[in-house]
Model the fold of this input.
Amino acid sequence: MAHRSAYDLYLKDCLLPVTPEKIQISINSQNKTVSLINEGEINILKRAGLTDIEFEAEIPQVPHPYAVYKSGFQNAGYFLAVFEELKAKRKPFQFIVCRKLPTGKQLLSTDIKVTLEEYQITEDAGNGFDFMVKFRLKQWRDYGTKTVNIQMGASKPKASVSPSRETDNSPAPAVSQPYTVMKGDSLWGIAKRFYGNGAKYTVIYDLNRETIGGNPNMIYPGQVLTIPAA
Done:
């Protein structure tokens, strides 16, 4: 036999007259398991997925002593119209469960923005004139898109000309010559460009130790190096 529950359940601002015997709340996971070569399976942890909520509630057609109404008795037609409106509007609403002790002391409450995915209405002779309605809700997360304003200048863009660089087939210099380091350069690449062999970077480094310092990998754009003669 139905009885007054220790909690109230609201769909938006609609208080269900008879609280469900149970509510199933599933907090879903988006974690992903992948297999690595020679390492076996690992689990990649991700943000929790959307929560699913399912329950079944009695909707009385006639007054019952255990049913509760905010503003006096409303028959089943009133509530079925509310459920249909929540579905038809295709907008999220609040799912609220207010828990309390028999003394009236408030306990933990649930307040989640949800959408009404589906609901099923069952008429059973065993329930007399009353309806049973099964609900399936899904958590809703607000989201939005970012906009970017692009302002075009009045003048046309000018083409930039990059400084010409030696090709990998450049001949070795007959005499020592200066070389200005450019972005992306390395001593290995410079040696290959001038000598055809990157391993000869030590020849350049030995002559430019004071300019480069103690680490031959630490050259930067703008440095002027001396390229030794072949």
